[in-house]
Amino acid sequence: MRDFRDSADGPPVVTAGAGRSQRTAAGASAGRPRRLLAVLGLALSCLVLAQAANAIQVEAGWRHSLLVRDDGTLWAWGWNEYGQLGDGSLATRSAPVPVMNNVRTAVGGLYHTVVLKTDGTLWTFGMGVLGQLGVGVVPRKAVPVQVLSGVTGIAAGFRHTMALKADGSLWTWGENDKGQLGDGTTVQRSTPVQVLTGVAAVGAGFQHSMAIKTDGTLWVWGNNANGAVGDGSRIDRVTPVQVLSNVVAVAAGKQTLALRSDGSVWAWGSNSNGQIGNGSVLVDQLAPLQVQTGAQVSPPAPSPPWRSSRAASYGCGAITSLRPR
User: Fold this and answer.
1) Cys-Cys with 263: which of 137, 224, 295, 324 at CB 3.0–4.6 Å?
2) 232-267 tens-digit pLDDT
3) How far apart are CA 313 and CA 309, in angstroms?
């Protein structure tokens, strides 16, 4: 996700994802040039940089795309077999369609979407066969359904969902075969379960989850086959494990990244394509490794009037959501 509050009207939306369905709004003409700013696609990570008229946030699910405009409207397009666009249909859309109003932020998982509205309510739609919608086990929901209230941050993994409430409590639901919900089991949950307290930010990777506590400690759990938890092992963790301190931001795919308050960047987990950044490939990193120094750590830019919290989110496998301080 990136903010584009100062963007001028006109440029087309440029996004990237996986699969063959069309996910890019190409503008009025099929031949109109696309302005690709940057695409960082590692494994299932869908962090996208783009420029769009009146947009303050862009997000990418596995085969669908999301855009939040400065008027609080949510727009979606792409593959829609499970209703992940939320427009009440199952029709694939090759151009953005309006979905909801009064939206603060939105994130996409594999085939589901999670939305946080300005009133603190959390809404979901799309695939629900693993409980990832939080409203029971359902094949799909093609229109938004409310799940929680009092929410300040959200994250969506591959097939699980996370919500941070205003009181600092963390709630999770959905797929849990690798312990990614952090509730001490591998039992799938179709409604929210509380996992932690004292949380300031949340994030989700492919099948693992992250939480930054108010004291700056980073806690990770879930799939650890490639070392994404960062505890030095390959054993899946079904409860949160403390990994680092003085952390201010996180991101993840099958690897995990952490930005510390001193500007240093740390990485661990899958390194099949060199995504750790340590100069090697194929050798997984099982514990945090410093890969960069001097990264700038600055407070968030002022929010528009309707966007009342410092919520930030990074789509599908690279997600951080900050609650108000």
Assistant:
1) 295
2) 999 999 999 999 999 999 999 999 999 999 999 999
3) 12
Calpha distance 8→54 (Å, rounded) = 7
Listed in sequence order, the residues at least 6 apart from 227 whose beta carbon sits closer than 8 Å to its beta carbon are 233, 234, 268, 269, 270, 284, 285, 286, 287
What are 288's two structure tokens?
């945090």
Q: How far from 86 is each of 27, 105, 225, 316, CA to CA, in Å?
A: 22, 15, 34, 17
Burial label for 54, CB within 10 Å (0-12, 13-18, 19+), is: middle
Quick one: pLDDT band at residue 295, thresholds 50, 70, 90?
Answer: confident
Q: What is the DSSP letter of 82?
A: T
Is 253 strand, coil or helix? coil
Predicted model pTM: 0.79
Q: Vertex 56, ends 55 and 58: CA angle to 5°? A: 80
Rounded CA separation 223/160 (Å): 12
Query: Can you spell out the DSSP letters for 278-295?
Result: SS--S--EEEEEEEE---
**In this structure, what DSSP letter does residue 225 have?**
T
306 HSE (CA, 13 A, CB side): 15
The continuous run of DSSP H or E covering 161 comes out as strand 160-165
CB count within 10 Å of CB 137 equals 13
Q: Side-chain half-sphere of 90: how many Cα atoms within 13 Å?
A: 6
Tokens coding 287: 């514990």
